[in-house]
Specification:
It is a single chain. By secondary structure, the chain is of the alpha/beta class. The protein has one domain: HybD-like (Rossmann fold), CATH 3.40.50. 36% of the residues lie in helices and 20% in strands. The chain contains six helices and seven strands, in the order ββαβαβαβββααα. Strands 1-2-6-7-5-3-4 form a seven-stranded mixed beta sheet. α2 packs across α5 (163-181). The termini are close together.
């Protein structure tokens, strides 16, 4: 894991990835004044493109693991939040949860050395930036799964990404979020960090 100006890179293939993600996410959450309310999880992407399905997979896994007991979840395989409905979803979230912290989750393209890594940091996420789409920025904290290398044909990279690698990253992210947002689980996770 590296820290470059409050951006953390966590190798999802390491056995400590889940507790590291949970610890760093809890650290970022604690820096916000909005911590008295549960964070809102905004999982962005579409189930129609393998590489872009990371967000909806995370949302689906969070629901399956019972995350909706701890925080609101937007964006699943059944109800994805993507380019066509992102602005409406953002308006709805801001109306229903005006004082909640928003954690935005999305797939991203990166360098070859960061393939399979999770990045997280303070600030908003710019969905669609890797494929030159201009969509609204959203979030107080972002989490991305680096699912493929950034190449000029970004859409091709998203379409040719293996589902198994996207699902593995999504599972790791979902577990890290659950540990970070459930204090009893967080205590156990923090003991696992090297």
């Amino acid at each position: 894991m590296k820290n470059l100006s409050s951006v953390y890179y966590i190798n999802s293939k390491k056995y400590t990835a889940v507790p590291e993600l949970a610890y760093r996410l809890q650290e970022l959450i604690s820096r916000h004044s909005k911590t008295n309310l549960p964070p809102v999880m905004l999982c962005i992407g579409t189930d129609r493109v393998t590489g872009d399905s990371l967000g909806p997979l995370v949302g689906t896994f969070l629901h399956a693991y019972g995350g909706d007991r701890y925080f609101p979840i937007y964006g699943t395989l059944d109800f994805p939040i993507h380019a066509l409905n992102l602005e409406d979803a953002c308006r709805q979230i801001k109306k229903k949860h005006p004082r909640n912290l928003i954690i935005a989750v999305d797939a991203s393209l990166g360098t070859k050395k960061h393939l399979g890594y999770i990045s997280l940091g303070q600030g908003s996420l710019k969905p669609g930036a890797g494929v030159q789409k201009k969509l609204c920025s959203i979030g107080d904290i972002y989490i991305t799964g680096i699912i493929n290398t950034a190449i000029p044909e970004a859409q091709m990279a998203l379409q040719n990404t293996r589902l198994s690698s996207v699902a593995s990253l999504a599972c790791c992210i979902a577990q890290g979020i659950l540990y970070a947002c459930n204090p009893s689980e967080m205590t156990a996770a923090s003991r696992s960090i090297i």
